[in-house]
Amino acid sequence: MEIFFLIIVVILLFFVIQQQLYKDMYNYSSDGISIISNNRVVDCNKKILELFKYDSKKEFLLIHPLKLSPPFQPDGSFSHKKASDMMKEAQKKGNCKFEWVFLTKDEEEKNIEIDIIKLKSRFFFKNRLFMIWRDIDKRIEAEEKLKKLNENLEKVIEHKIKKNKEQERMLFIQSKQAQMGEMLSMIAHQWRQPLTSISSSVIDMKMKIILESDKEKLIDYISYELEDIEKLTQTLTNTVDDFKDFYKPTKKMSNTTITTPIKKAFRIIEKSFDYYDITVNFHFDTDSSISMFESEIVQAILSVLQNAKENFLQKNIENKVINISTNEANNYTNIIICDNGKGIKDKYLDKIFIPYFSTKEKKNGTGLGLYMVSKIIQERHNGIISVKNTDDGVCFTISLKKDNNFE
Fold it and tell me: Using the 8-state DSSP alphabet, how is residue 378 labeled?
């Protein structure tokens, strides 16, 4: 009998301890806890009173639930209707979780995350709901700050993109202006010989008119000289056309054989190369058609050739040679331009495509030519531009996709 009594005492003590543990967990939880019966709060812990700024549990329990919420929730739904729907969902599914805007005793809005759990006891807690109230004001505030930060970041990024585009446009204009000076020098080389020949023909015709007494011979001679002047004039006209086509903007790609821009670039720079005794050798293993902005590829090739010429002059290279070749490999058509100008210092190889970087000792270069080449090839044509030193010089390789339709 004593043993039985002892067992009963132990069991009762266990239940008392358990009850006290649950009571402590209930009252001192960091989250608000309440019990709902017939859509009314019938009990709550201390945290609930702190959340809603009420002095006593009795005062809080007397408040009608509708007074704890504003008429409408942030999503525009009617609070009374939405609360009823959440309760029904909890009764049906056994639990429900949602966010809610409540009103404190002094009418301040407070963001709360609610967990509703349906109590399953068949006797003592039938049709009662267990609710956990979690203050999420700080989280909402952090989310709002993050949202504003993202919005500001988007604006900053958009501003940076616009600024970068404007800088790119200005760089392109500067590059074109720099090349305009180079073009004028090339035009001077192209026109010097024809203009000299025309001037000589005019002087000869004047002397012939004064000295020649035979009119038929005079007429024949003048006719011959005029034909020669006409051919020279046509040469000047062709030169103008070459330069006009070079500066003509192209908005659409066209299928062009890979050697076409090479030949056009060489025609523009040929007389200048002749003047400086620069030999150019061609070796074309392919002349396949590629979709390209032709005048831009001409510009890229010209920049590489002009860079080679300036390097020859800076280093006083005597036997100046440039080899231009084409080939195909791995779905790319390649233009390879190699010179014997003693190459580029290794420490500069990975910098030559950076804007405003120049290896020219006298700082006469703008540092934009090769940068624009990289922009034209990589961004405008989705291609590859690479450079490497050889035994006696440097090689630039321009690689364009054979099935290129990038615009």
Answer: I
CB half-sphere exposure, 332, CA atoms < 13 A: 15
DSSP 376: I
Which residue ranges of the chain lie beneath pLDDT 50?
A: 9, 14-18, 20-21, 123, 361, 363-365, 406-407
In the chain, domain spans: 1-27, 31-135, 148-248, 249-407
CA 112/CA 93 separation, integer angstroms = 21
| Domain 31-135 listed as CATH 3.90.550.10 | no
pLDDT score at 327: 93
The predicted pLDDT at position 336 comes to: 95
User: Following DSSP, what letter does each residue of 3-70 receive, concatenated?
Assistant: HHHHHHHHHHHHHHHHHHHHHHHHHS-SSEEEEEETTEEEEE-HHHHHHHT-S-HHHHHTS-GGGGS-
Residue 236, CB-side half-sphere exposure with 13 Å CA sphere: 15
Q: Is the pTM of the predicted complex or chain greater than 0.70?
A: no
Per-residue pLDDT tens over the stretch 98-117: 888 888 888 888 898 988 88
Sign of the dihedral defined by the CA atoms of residues 139, 143, 146, 148, in that order: negative
Q: Is the dihedral of CA 253, 256, 261, 264 positive or negative?
A: negative
Alpha carbon separation from 140 to 37, 53, 106 (Å, rounded): 30, 20, 20
Which of 362, 242, 369, 225 lies closest to 302, judged by CA?
369
SS3 percent helix, strand, coil of the chain, rounded to 5, is 55, 20, 25
pLDDT for 259 = 93
> Count of alpha carbons within 13 Å of 100, Cβ hemisphere only?
28
pLDDT value for 69: 86
The whole-chain average pLDDT of the chain stands at 78
Rounded-to-integer distance, Cα 364 and Cα 341, Å: 18
- Token readout for 119 is 């109590």
* 268: amino acid identity, one letter: I
Residue 213 one-letter amino acid: S
Question: From 3.40.50.300, 1.10.10.10, 3.30.565.10, 3.40.640.10, which CATH number describes the 249-407 domain?
Answer: 3.30.565.10
Residue linked to tokens 């006209």? 237
Beta-strand pair 332-339/95-103: unpaired
Cα(150)–Cα(152) distance, integer angstroms = 5
